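On clarity, I found the account of how folds are encoded harder to follow than it need be. Since the whole study asks how a given chain folds, the encoding of that fold should be made plain. For illustration, here is how one protein appears when written out as sequence plus structure tokens:
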Amino acid sequence: MASQRVVFQVTYPPAAAPSFDMDYYLNSHIPLVQKRWSAHGLQSWSVFTGTEGSGYHVQATLIWKDLASFESAPHREEVMGDIKNFTEVLPTRALGLVAAQGQAA
């Protein structure tokens, strides 16, 4: 059986909005994530901004090759340590295996 891809979601709540530096996040933090983890199993990433009533301010979704790649990725302290440069609010995180995926016709 082929290994399952992993989805890692990092969600910043509405409380982060007043102090969240979106420019830094998009132009420094996300490039850091890509630079440090692309060679170690990170396949893609997306950043979403919440709409009114969505329950979140910003959410990043990272797709990894498999759970082993995610768990063994180096530079975790550097990437997580960078959070203080764009917000004072800690995110919630969710990790899951891709069970099914499709495309609209």
About this structure: The CA atoms of residues 12 and 90 lie 7 Å apart. The beta strands are 6-12, 42-49, 58-64, 92-97. The longest helix spans residues 22-37. The chain has three helices and four strands.
